[in-house]
Amino acid sequence: MNTTSHPTPRGLVTLRSAEATDIDYLVELNKRCFPAMAEENVVWTRGHLLTHQRLFPAGQIVAVLDGVIVGAVCSLIVTLGDDPYRPHTYAGITDGGFFHNHDPQGDTLYGADVFVDPEVRGAGVGSILYEARRELCRSLNLRRILAGGRLHGYAEVAGEMTPEEYIHKVELGEIRDLVLSFQLREGFVVRGLLKHYITDPNSKNNASLIEWLNPDYVPIEDEDQRKVRVAAVQYQVRKINSFQEFADQVEYFVETAHDYRADFVLFPEFFSVQLLSQDALKNLPAPEGISRLADMEEEFIELMSRMAREYGLYIVAGSHPMRRGDTIYNACPIFSPDGSHVSQPKLHITPSEVKYWGITGGSELRVFDTPKARIGVLICYDSEFPEAARYLSDQGAEIIFVPYCTDDRPGYQRVRICSQARAVENQLYVVTAGVVGNLPSVPAMDIHYGRAGVFTPSDSEFARDGILAEADPNVEMMLVSDLDINDLYRSRSSGSVRQILDRRRDLFSFSSNLKNDLPGLADEDFTPVNIFDPEEE
Fold first, then answer.
1. What residues have CB less than 8 Å from 158, skipping those under 6 apart?
2. What is d(CA 189, CA 180) in angstroms, rounded to the nearest whole number?
3. Which H helix or E strand runs over 65?
4. Are 179 and 149 in contact (CB under 8 A)?
5. Buried residues in 310-328 as b, exposed as e (16+ CB within 10 A)
6. How far apart are CA 235 and CA 237, in angstroms?
């Protein structure tokens, strides 16, 4: 989400997406907010929150006041079919608190938790977080928000009335409930009672089923279709005389992708190295050239951000050298239609990148949530390592974009063949785009071989040979393709082969040590939230 600021009586509160570095603090804050529930093992662990961020980062939002997190929301998307108000438990609807049942194709945003530091309650932080959740529902065009609201004060009057009577009196304003009264003020309505919802002494395990209907919801005409249009730019590098010439060439393709109603446009790896062909920069020694190019990061980012906003699409901006401290990374910025961006560094660095440019490999690999699809990026050489794609697949990626820069046909074939293999073994789409043309005045960028492609799983839902589209080799052009995301899920569940479901996890294990992973996770971090046993009531 975009970072936003909101005035409160206690000062300016900033909302932003939760990050891995927040997790330890959020665990402790959650315990402070719900001390009675902490004793019942129904508060978040590090494993819960890490999984939330991996599966649905857009739904995990924190509120920050004076540099300190003072509140947070946790949400997931679910599919409830023809009976959205059917009884359920907290552990059931959240898959033991881990959100593995998060369904990007669902129509309902489920509010798993909202918690605010007791020290700032009454300052409006809760209302700000609820509005952020409503805005998320609108932006994703979801039908509703549902949640189970604990009947916080019911235990005090349980001998005098039933839970149903308690809810009715709260609705009439005759009783004030710390949770439900607030939710009613936030525009929610009660749809029913959830008995045995969660182990909670204050509510005697009862909750109200509450709903907020999205007034801006637009029904999808054909709910069996979830199409994404991608444009892969086969970009020809050529001598330029100014940054503006580079910008004009790039904008031509962005504008054309917009004209073709593309949702994503992909540029190749290192296409911005074309900037070193300017007279003032050509023929520089390779280390100096890459350093000068890294100095242009701000200008490059501003250009891409402006175009993403003006043309209203996602730009997967190939890659650009980015300096962090004394280290230069080869990183791909991904720009949203609002102009914001995140970056994915290249993990595996080729010998020539080390030799000529002194590039260092990154240590973070992420899946990025968008309303259209969950995407990941593997830059060129990264596609040749199956572990990287497997990691993205395990985090829910539906499309992997592979920007590449290869000098000859063997190099191109390595990327192409491996990209197609990644699509088959992970049952997802892989979109590739490479540089073509020559830059004789720029060391290590003198010749190129490229052919953009879109690769699919190899099954009856897809193209016969697993190749949805391929460009003509070594010709500047743009490849436009439509991807049906639902085909991926049909293939995964009922295809002739099911690589995702049929993995022998009992024989082969997978682990990672990425920077965005949490260190030192223990078994208790992966304990499901306490599942209520009605016999214990």
1. 204
2. 10
3. strand 60-65
4. yes
5. ebebbbbbbbbbbeeeeeb
6. 6
- Residue 411 token pair: 């190099």
Structure tokens at 214: 């999205």
Name the active-site residue from 269, 384, 398, 461.
269
Name the DSSP class of 246. H
Strands 453-455 and 314-317: unpaired
For β-strands 453-455 and 429-437, DSSP reports them as: antiparallel
491-494-499 Cα angle (round to 5) = 60
Q: Are residues 415 and 384 in contact, defined by beta-carbon separation less than 8 angstroms?
A: yes
Question: E strands along 320-428, which residues?
Answer: 320-324, 327-335, 341-345, 368-369, 374-377, 399-404
User: Which 8-state DSSP code applies to residue 354?
Assistant: I
Q: What is the pTM assigned to this prediction?
A: 0.75
CA–CA–CA angle 422, 425, 427 (5° rounding): 90
8 A C-beta contact, residue 303 and residue 253: no
Does 346 participate in catalysis according to the annotation? yes
Give the per-residue pLDDT at 536: 47
- Asked if 380 is an active-site residue, the reply is yes
Taking the C-alpha atoms of residue 266 and residue 231, their distance in angstroms, rounded to an integer, is 6
| Stretch 409-422: mean pLDDT | 97
Q: Show the tokens assigned to 14.
A: 């900033």
CA 207 vs CA 193, 297, 404, 441: distances in Å: 6, 51, 52, 69
CA-derived radius of gyration, the chain: 25
Q: Which of 33, 332, 346, 405 is catalytic?
A: 346
Residue tagged active-site, from 380, 384, 398, 476 = 380
129 touches 115 (CB < 8 A): no
Tokens encoding 136: 């998320």
- Do 84 and 108 form a contact (C-beta atoms < 8 A)? yes
Using 50, 70 and 90 to split pLDDT, how confident is the model at 534? very low
pLDDT in tens, 289-301: 999 999 999 999 9
